[in-house]
Structure formats: structure tokens, C-alpha cells
Amino acid sequence: MHESVLVYRRFRYLKWAVTLTVVSLLAYIFHSPAEPANGGTWLGYTLGTIGVGLIVWLAWFGIRKRSYANPEIKLEDWLSAHVYLGLSLIFVATLHTGFQFGWNVHTLAYVLMMLVIVSGAFGLYAYVRYPKLMTENRRGVSLDAMIVEMAEIDRETRELGAKLTDEIRDLVFDAVENTRIGGSVRRQLESGRSGRTVAAIARIREIIPLPSREQTEDGRRLISLLTRKNELVLRARNDVMYKAMMDIWLYVHVPLTFALLASLIAHVIAVFFYW
Amino acid sequence: MADKFKVAIVGSGPAGMSAAGRAAESGVSHVLLEKADHLSDTIYKYQKGKFVMATPEVLPLRSPMSFQAGIREDILRTWDEQTAGHKANVRFKNEVTAIKGQKGKFELTVLGGPAVEAEYVVLCIGLQGNLRKVECAGADRPWVQYQLDDPDAYSDETIIVIGAGDAAIENAVALARQNKVIVVNRRDEFARAKQGNLNLITEAIDKGVIECFYNSEPKEIGDNFIVLTTADGEAKVECNRVIARLGADPPRRFVESCGIKFPSKDRAALPELSGSYESNVPGLYILGALGGYPLIKQAMNQGYEVVEFIEGRPVKPADEPLLEAKFANINAGVDETLQRIRQNVPLLSSLTTLQLREFMIDSTVHTPPRGDVIFARNDYTNSLYSIVQGKVGIQVNPTNPAEMIELGQGQFFGEMGLISGRRRTATIVAASDDCVLIETPRRSMIKLVNSVAAVKKVLDQTAMGRQIQTQLAPEVPTAELQEVVETAKIESHPAGTVLFNEGDQGDAIYLIRRGSVTVSRAIAGRNLVLSYVPAGNYVGEMALLSRAPRSATIKTAVATEVVKLDGAAFTKVLDKHPSLREKLENKYEQRMVENVRMEEAPESGGLIEFLVAQGVGEATDVLLIDESLCVRCDNCEKACAETHGGTSRLDREAGPTFASIHVPTSCRHCEHPHCMADCPADAIHRAPNGEVFIDDKCIGCGNCERNCPYQVIHMAAKPPAKPGLLQWLLFGAGPGPGEDLGAKKVKSDSPKLAVKCDMCKDLAAGPACVRACPTGAAIRVNPEQFFAMTIRG
After folding, report:
1. Which of B631, B779, B786 sits opposite A131 (nearest CB)?
2. Contact A200, A154 (CB under 8 A)
3. B644 and B768, same domain (yes or no)
4. B229 is in which domain, residue-wise?
5. A-chain residues within 8 Å CB-CB of B639?
6. pLDDT digits (tens, 9 = 90+) for A88-144
7. Which residues of B touch A74 (CB under 8 A)?
8. Which residues of chain A neighbour B776 with C-beta distances below 8 Å?
9. N or C: lower Cβ tally within 10 Å for chain A?
10. What single-letter DSSP state applies at residue B328?
11. 8 Å CB contact of B635 and A127
């Protein structure tokens, strides 16, 4: 009943994209212009027009996505087409260039377009890969719930730490104070356990047994709490990372799209007025 | 020497006050006797600021006093002013203790004032009666009180609330905001309370906000303490105040002492009244709640009318024009039509004239031409139709519309939808030219079923017989099913009840008429759910056919009603009708194959079990998110907010997950919506396609929010409007589509009203959340279909 973007309507848009690609390739192969292949032949113009049309239409997705009340839109339909037709643009635009590249505004538009496509391809990869990992990582517990549990463990470990030696107290406080979940972009994209907590656990294990049996028991309990905390840290950081991976590419994809549109306008104007 | 008047009015509620106003207005000598020192004691005792409804909305008000929905204070002030304005003769603190005599000369004994002699007496003392008092030493101390005007007037006190009814709970919860509250409950649960209040008090007790002594009673009230007798002995509790809400003794004994007769000993019985509200004692009239009319507007109209009757001016009831308009398409007078309805429709014959009038105001009269479709199979309407005249045809076979069973005058149809809360099972067409049908909405029907026992009985019996025939044995003539129907029983079970266990002996067949059940079997020490069976199907036929012990366990998924058929009686029918036996055997084999397949795929059974545990069994349409596709973009929530005035009705992240199927917090459009059960404004409805929605009559009382077991309704103020897409895109005017309003949201000063998912019933393309999902992770499905597909794999 659930149907992913890739298989949507039995690969309808994959079929469209393959058709477009194959037709473009065949046309390119059988086309033999007087001059070397370039954007100025009739095929070059045709492919260029298709390419511009596709780019504008693909960028229009941003508007479509926000047209919530429009009854004609099923966003999955649009995304499926966006993905496949966007990928076919690699062929259409490359053939349009006739492999003539240089240090100019025309090649800039091409490079920007390829970067948009590559970032989009990464987005697709992220959308296919991370949802499942995220679900498995969460095991039915939300990030908020994990943070609540961590805070509870923090409180308990501080209390236990304060009851034991000064060194242990400082270790625990240090580990609690310096363990972060999320934060800067870099932090969001990294995962792993808390190094300070790992160190604290190792050090406490060295120190015990403590003088009294009761203290030793508390120490052991502290170790198990810190270990539990660190597993939660790992899971929470993973969660943040997966979410960041699914979000970050859009911060590249969208601005580059605007840059592409601007350079595309420059390219088209330049071609028509100054060639 | 007694004071003499033409009319003595006892009680100054809406009815009495309106009657006194009308008498004063038309110059009739009268007196209004009120035992309290203010008008309308019942409404006076409402909680401060309580919103008073003016239902039924369509009924016009006919009274010298005005009345419209509003808060208690405004209404009482208006009445005070208008009573004074009309110069009505009111005597406060005059309690009538006895009424003797007959028409022309009644003698009223009055406590607190001079005796009164009157030609006519109008009794409108309501049902509130005398408040029950705490019966223990010290109960007369001044800090023991029996009502609570303004809970916010008390703070930082320890307050004991005695009682377990709605009033006690409402007081306790309101007081707990600023005080320490201890509830004393005579029993071990709050059985008498409305579901919404029950949820409130249980939650407050669980969270420790309110303390509760169960199985306890007050023994002694001292200076600043109360002694309780509890199950574990006596307990002394220090406190500043005691509020006892123990209900009231009905005024029946007093009424009977005036010579008025009641038709039965039943506590809920009402005195018999004529069409002009006169009791069996000539000259003695009964109005308002005491006569069975609890609504303010009705009572006020009666107050006006009774003065007209006494003055010998015949007056049509206030609802007459409404009924005239309703009956306009059948060209007959109101009285004549009501008489005909009562004669022709046995279901309604036990109603009094006044009840029937009220019933008809809620209903619609249809006169469809022959061949017109009354409702179609799979429609989601749930009204009940009665045939006053003519015939209708039930299309029993969806593939062949010509195959019809006819129903004639006096019968009713549509009860299956009413009982099961599901889609219509068959199409009904008008089968004669002179059809006159009454369509009654679900709410009015439920009210009637709950208040008139005879209606419930007729409805249940007929529905049961029909269900047995249509769902189990359509080929068997009705006469041959008689024994089966006579031995059948309707049983209702709460969610989680086992109807029978695997290995049990028994040959009864269970027809599910409301709710749903799961079929499970113990495999390798684990209980494996094999299938989900919704209303309109049967279980238990396997044991009957195989004559072996039960092969699986049947457990109710939600609150369920079943018709239990006697195995022996049914076997006799089977022996006579081999084709029926064959049909059942086919079903048996099909189930066996399905069960074996499910045993091979235990994870599907796990999914069904999980969803049933989430209450999906009572859903008609549920939002399910496949988390292996969901990219957590929250576009579903944004789309919901953008298409519904800025507030999302779904919470994607909240809610449980099983094997990557996530059930977000979003309305499931239950078969019998919990939210609808107690909506004072009648603002929650089911649309023909099944959507349960709240209309703009919502008054923001929050009952639905409390009654919803799935937390999908919340109270929200309308946020301010946002700039358009282009403004945002080109000029950076924020927040943009789908973006949060942030702090601005809080500033809204519009009132908080209930909001919930309406499945985007006004958008032709369907739910915005599903359409806005870019990856196909969100779907809305009918659980039945979903389960069927899960089982088929």
C-alpha cells in the first residue's frame, strides 16, 4: 500500500526519462551537422530548449511543494517525476553542449546544473537510506524521550558521584557538562559515544574497589548508569545525524538552483545577443 | 386570612418566571412563590461564568422574558431586570409545603410567608429538589457547604469534596488549581460520572494533584478537621472547608402529596400531562423539568402557554410553525399527521404527544417518487428511517439491483448503520408513488432509545432478526428462522473480552453487530493473531460445522455487541437448507487456508495485534506512516496547518511504531466517535463519506478533547493570517507557507475552539497530509482493507 518514490506508478517517470535520454542520444549520434556539434545547431537548440524547460519546471517544484491547497497536486507524483527527469537532464544538457567547455558563463551554467543534480542525487540517496536506519536506531523511542532519560541519568549519576570520592565527582560532572547532542552543523553530522564519558567509565573502573563495600556497589552502579547514558548518547547522536543528512543537501541544492537560474539567464541572453 | 389570587405559580425557574411575566403582562392576578431569595435557583447555582446553551436552536422563544445562549451572570441579570420591569408579583423566601383543594380553590401552605389561595396552580419546581445533606455529627457547621459558585474564590486551602458525581468532580478539579483537594468517595470508583469527567478525575488522582479516599464516608466534622470511616479504619484529616455534592432528593413525594399520579414507580417516570400541561388534578399544571422538559427555552415557552390556557385563549405550541413547515410537502395538518405517524409506525406509538413533537422537530419528512434512491450502499450516513406510508425496496444483491426485499408501512430501516456505525450495507429505493418517510438523525435516535425502553426493545429485536437473515441466511424464509431469532441473545462486551477460548466446547455462532474481534491461536507458546473480523460478519461457525472444540480464541478488539445464536437451533436450519450449509463450509475452508497462511507469516499477525492495541479496530480511516519511507520533513503537518487555518491537526512524531508502521496522533474517525458522545452544542458530525468533523457551532467547552482516547483533538485559537507565497518568496515577508508562526502564535486573542482532522472533506482531492507527502510514506486507509491486505500478504 505504501509505494516509494522510485517505484511510483510502476516506474512511470523512469520510463519517461529513459525515453527522453534514448531519443536525445540517438538524435545526437545520427545528427551530422556541418560544423562540430554544439549548442548552435538545430539539434543543439532543440536540446537546449528542452533543457531550459526542464530546469524551470524542476525548480517549480519548490512552489508546488508549498501549494498545499492545490487539489491537483500529489506531491509524490511530482517528486518521482522531479527525480527521474532531473537525472535525464544530465544527458540532455551534456549533449546540448556538444562537449564544448571553456572558462565562460555557458560552462558555468553547466557546472552549476551538474552540482544541483549531484546534490539532488545525494538527497535521493539520503531519502532512501536514512529513514530505515533512523527507525531502527530509535527502537520506538523518540529523541525527546531519550533526552529526558539522559537527564534523569545525569541527575542520578551526579548524586552518586557526589557521594563517592572528589575525583569521581569531578569526572562525572565533567562528563555530564561536556556531552553535547547536536549543535553546530559539524556536530550534527558526526556521531559516536561521548569521549569524556568513556574516559570517566575507564577511570572509575580503575579506581574501584573503593574502601567500603557500599561505596564499591555505588561505583558499580555508577558505571552501569554511565554506560547506559553513553548508549543513549550514541543513539541520540545517530538520530540527529540521520536527520541532518536528510536535511543538509537541501541547503546546497536550493541555493545552487537559484545560482543556476541566474547563470542560465545570462547564458541564454549571451547566446542570443552576443554570439 | 389567605391572600387570594387567580394563579399561584410555584417555583421561579425559567418556566415559573416566564409564566409570572406573562400573567403580569396580560393583567392576570398572580403570585410567584420562590423558596430561595433569588430567581431561578438551579441556574443561580451553576458555576460562575458557566456558558448556558439555548437549545433546541430551531425552536422559537415565546415569552415576555428574553433568553439567548450566554454566560450565567448575563442571563440571570436580564431575567431580574425583566421580572421587575413587568412588575411580576414575586415573593422570595416563600416555600410552599402543601397544596390542597381543587380547581377554583386551591389552598397553599407557605413557609416564610402568608398562606395563598388560588383558582389555578402552576407547579414548576424543577427536579433539583432538596439537596442531600451530610449525615454526621458537625454537618451543620458553617464551613460545610453544598454548592460552589466560584472555585477561584478559594486559594491555599485544604478542601474536602464529598461525592462522586459530575458536580463533585467538576468542583474538585476546578478547586485543585489553587488548593489542596481531597475527594471522599463512598464507592471504589466514579461510576456515575460522565466519561469526560471520569478522565479528568482519574488523571488528577494518578498525577497526585487530587487525593482520593475510596470506600469512605464522613463520620464527624470538627472545627478544622473531618473524621472519615475508610476501609482501613478511621482517618482524621485536617481541612479548611468541606464541600458536599451528594445530589438531591427528587421532589416526587411532595408532588404526589398534591394528588398528582405517576404512571410507574420507576424513578425516571414522569407525571401524565395533557397537551395543555394539566395534570390529573384539574387546575393544577406542571411545567419544565418536572414534566419532562429540561431545556430552558421549552420551559419558558410553556410558562407563556400555560397562562394562555388558563385564560381560555387556545394557543398552538411554539413549535407548531416548525412542524407545519416540516409537513408542508404532505399537505396535512400537524395534529392529523402526528396522529397518523403514531398509528402507522409501531416504533413511535409509545411516545407521548409532546415527545413525538420533539422527535419530529429533529427529523425530516421525505416524499420520494418511486425509484428514488433513499441512500446508497457504502454511504456513511447513520440516520434511521421510518415508513409512515408506502413501500421501499432493499437491494440485497449489489450486482443485481432488481433483486429486492420490500418493506412496507410501519417498518423502519437504516438501523444497521445506526448500530454498527459503519457504511450502509445496501441501497434503498422508494418502491411506491405515495412514500412518506421520516428520517431521524443518529443523535435524536440515541436519545430516544435511551429514554424510551419500548423503542429500544422494538429496534433491537427487529434489527437482530434482520441481521441474522441478511448476513447469515438470506436464502432462508423468515418464518424458518424464527426459532433461531427467538433463542438469539444480544450481548455487549468491553474491549479485550474473550468470547471463547481455543479448545473450549461450544457451538454458538456469534454475529458481530457492533465493534470488531480478533481471531488468534496459541502457536509455539505465543498467541498469534490470525485475523481481524469487523461488524457485519460472524465467527464460531467452524466448531458448529466440525463438531470439534473451538479452533481459535476470539477476543473483542473494541467495545463490541454480538448476537449469540444457539447452535442447536441453527443446526436445524442448516439441515433443511443444504445450500446454506455449503456456503458456511466454503467460508470455513477459506478461513482455514487464511489461518495457515498467517501462521507462516507471524509478523503480519504481530502488526494486526499492534494496530488493534492502538485502537485501530474502531477506526474507519487511519493515517499510517511507513517509517522506512518517511524522511521526517513534516510536510504532512505543514500541509494540514496550511489547509486548516494555521493549526495542524496531526502530530507526526507522536504515537507508537511497530515494524516500521507508525501510527501518528491523528483522528481515526471512529465508528462510534467518542468525541460525539457529549458535545453540548451538537457541533460534531459525520459527513456522508465518513469524516467526523467539528462545525462552527463549537463553544470551546473541551468535552471532546477529554473524551477522545487518542488525544487527537485539541483546543486552539485561530492564529493570525500569514503573507502569501509570492510575498514571502520575493519580498521575504515571513513566515512563509509551512513555516511556524513562532511567538506570534501566542498573541492571538480569538477564543480557543476544538480542532480535529476533518480528512479534508472540503478538498476534492482528499487529505492534504497524504497529498503533501513527497515520498509516499503517509497513507490513509480503512483498517479493514489494510488488515485484509496484510493477511493476504
Report:
1. B631
2. no
3. yes
4. 144-248
5. 68
6. 999 999 999 999 999 999 999 999 999 999 999 999 999 999 999 999 998 888 898
7. 765, 771
8. 2-5, 8, 76
9. C
10. G
11. no
